[in-house]
């Protein structure tokens, strides 16, 4: 499963604002987007990642992505953050 990387990552950012900040600051190595998240939200993140040259990986659901991030609610986007 692609979200296993999120589980194993030392640092992650969860949610649109934190993930966008990590991408813009060039601190993210990979961004994960839930397939069932609102496209009006995720399309902006995918475009930002494309602009910054950061790979985007799609995961099956917000619930799975949230669980991989260690939170009890769904997550639309998350990123692996480099120190």
UniProtKB/TrEMBL annotation:
InterPro entries: Ribosomal_eL30-like_sf, Ribosomal_eL8/eL30/eS12/Gad45. Pfam families: Ribosomal_L7Ae. Residues 4-82 form the Ribosomal protein eL8/eL30/eS12/Gadd45 domain. This is 50S ribosomal protein L7ae-like protein. Coiled coil: none annotated.
């Amino acid at each position: 499963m692609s979200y296993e990387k999120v589980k194993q990552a030392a640092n992650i950012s969860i949610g649109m604002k934190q993930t966008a900040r990590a991408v813009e600051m060039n601190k993210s190595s990979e961004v994960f987007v839930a397939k069932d998240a609102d496209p009006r939200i995720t399309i902006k993140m995918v475009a930002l990642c494309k602009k910054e040259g950061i790979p985007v990986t799609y995961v099956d659901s917000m619930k799975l992505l949230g669980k991989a991030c260690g939170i009890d609610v769904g997550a639309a986007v998350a990123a692996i953050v480099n120190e």
